Amino acid sequence: MTGRVEFCGLAEAVERHVRPGDAIHVVMGHSRWSALVREVARQHWGRPSGFTLIMASLSSLGTVLVRAGCLAKVVSVYSGDSFPVFTPNPVYQAGFGAHGGVEVEHWSFLTFIQRLRAAATGVPAVVTGSVAGSSMAANAAYTEVDTPFGHLGLVAALAPDVALLHAAVADREGNLAIAPPMFEGVVGAMAARRGVVASVERVVDDLRPWSGFVRIPAHRVLAVVEAPFGAHPGGVFAGPREQALPVSGYGEDIGFWVEVREASRRDDFDDWIREWVLEPADHDAYLAKLGRERLDGLVAAATGRRPDGPVADAGEPSATERAAVWLADLLVERIAAIGADGVLAGAGLANLAAWDGVARARQAGHRVALTAELGLWGYDPAPGDPYPFSFANFGTSSMLLDTEQVLGSFVTSPTTRAIACVGAALIDRHGNINTTRTDDGTHLVGSGGANDVVTGADETLVVGTMSPRRFVAATDYITSPGERVRAVVTDLGILENADGELVLTAVAPGPEPQHERIELARSRCGWALKTADHVRDLRPVSTADVGTLRSFDPDGLFLGRRTRPHPGSEGKQQ
Known about the structure:
By secondary structure, the chain is of the alpha/beta class. Helices cover about 25% and strands about 20% of the residues. Helix 13 (about 350-365) links the parallel strand 14 (about 340-345) and strand 15 (about 370).
């Protein structure tokens, strides 16, 4: 690429630099969306543009591109909802595969990034330790080879035609500054054949005072669009207070995320898209529709933690709360047993249990760090906010990194002792986890970072409520192989890995004789569940035991005791 960077508007940037048939990479840092992607949907609505969308996490708004009819293929890691809870989305289920005609290629977070890195560094493939033993190993871009250095897994280079991203700041030359945490980093921007089209909060004369945050050089940039709040409904973190970039950051608009999720489940979803994507004449019109008060509130939300919500009433612990407490108990035990350096907590219930367990382990004197695949290491979770990727956790982290560093250099490293805590949509008798698709081909969500941490951590603890639909004899699709799954904690007991098969080793307490409680657990399992020679009773869980969990999730979004409407659902967008 040669020539000067073009400074222009959204419509011009997309018209000039996004072409039918392109492989478009939407680069994701801590911002989940951009005005540029909205403009692509707007310009290509109803057009068979044949795009290949390369995007790590489509979340709820990726459904707009599916509905637009402009996609031929998706290369992704997670295609589902993130707010208010992590769930499959019906638009992806209808649009992906044979049903809808959009081909989908699944990867883990680490292998997705590694493929882009191969392209960015000009090599045909790179070595990976992920996806071996999973169904993703059948992807054409993965192979295993014997070499003089041992048996290796390789992933092929993935080179987009053009990359779209939202950065915090650009200078007049077109250099782009982004504060960590970086999620997938900028390897996709460096890999794009033609270059990068960027929206930014602000263009400044000189970025040299913040050179540590300049991630993409001007020679890689095709166009820059100055678009304040261009990451909405995602947010922008400007950096730690003492080092912040010269721009006002803002938090995620969770209410907007919730509304698009709900709209995607209604028959009038296209009307919602028309109102929020197709009809606003430009970015200024979109911001005007959001309203100044709403935008100012997002800026205010980025400057501090979410206020603590009311803790749920003092009712008896729910089934999911009991499972979470027992997982936290086991986690404390395992942190001590292996001298864990870090615990990576997956989203949802597993995350809350890990927060509780790590806090207890630290109180007992163990030096163990909480980590999140977005790029957080050693963070303290914010009360009242159950999301591991909350901006409120950024400022409490001892290190702000990216996914490749967290997963590739720490959690899966032989020099770091790590425990993974994850959930599972489906799990079979061998501990294999499936979060990608059901046996009839129905799309779930994908791997996220689960495959990377389950295969790379020293051991994995799984949590979930027990039912024959979730606990199956065998799963047709394996997202994460079960070799390093040590235990599965449920509301009815604990299953542990014994010679490659999960067996019941502990059972929930209760007034009934133990053999009846064991039979109840066995009846909720989709295979003939074996029991250990000695099955112990788990401890009773009191209201006091769940106080910490409820302080993190006061709305009961993941704890199974919804006490008030989820954040942002009290009213429609204005």
